[in-house]
Amino acid sequence: MYRILVTDDEEKIRALIRKYAQFEGHSVTEAGTGMEAVELCRRESFDIIIMDIMMPDLDGFGAVKEIRKFSSVPVIMLSARGEEYDRIHGFETGADDYVTKPFSSRELMMRIDAIMKRVRQSHEDEKAHDIYQSRGLTADFTARKITIDGVEADLTPKEYDLIFYMIKNRNIALSRETLITSVWGYDFFGDDRTLDTHIKKLRKSLGSCSDMITTLRGVGYRFEG
Questions:
Q1: CA torsion angle for 72, 52, 204, 121 (degrees, to 10)?
Q2: What residue spans define the domains of the chain?
Q3: For 176-193, what is each residue's pLDDT tens digit?
Q4: For residue 180, how far is the Cα from the chain centroid?
Q5: Mean pLDDT computed over 201-216
Q6: Does domain 128-223 sit in CATH 1.20.1530.20?
Q7: pLDDT tens digit string along 154-175?
């Protein structure tokens, strides 16, 4: 059972998500504004957050940005708009997934399950202390940290998943399909632009080590180290 925080200023949307989530045995807490969601996250712990973008007083982007200051809880963004800007901005603020309204409640539940499976696997992988170093890059798998020339990089949860997977499979040509299914899961519902966006942001975060991620035209990417 997951503890889910559903944040949306539309009561009907919250009720719909609550209905399906509770049917699958999950616990649901509701918030009608972004500010309310931030305050709830300060007082309580949740396994995952469903966050609408367009809300009064503090929109979803702002709410996620505030929550990321003290929590790495997974977030799925909801929006009535499907523009690429919204998707990119959502990932930049630390969202793990993005769903456009109107959406299938069953699909949303599947996305929640996929994210939580990856979270559990990540926790299992961190039990054994494992560190990788090359040039100025240090990847501490156990502490879940990436440092570049001694300075810790500020990555989103999904960027950590991506770089750790690429490092563990370094010097191997990784197809786009392999990266998407391995990092996002076989039941991922997005498209290739999601991977491209994360690779672009990841390179920027790696700074002087950005060239360690090589683009293989027509294939995918390779981490060289």
A1: 40
A2: 3-123, 128-223
A3: 999 998 898 755 655 668
A4: 13
A5: 95
A6: no
A7: 998 889 999 999 999 999 999 9
The pLDDT score that the predictor gives to residue 186 is: 57
- CATH code for residues 3-123: 3.40.50.2300
Residue with tokens 């977030």, as numbered in its chain: 75
Q: Contact at 8 Å (CB) between 9 and 51?
A: no
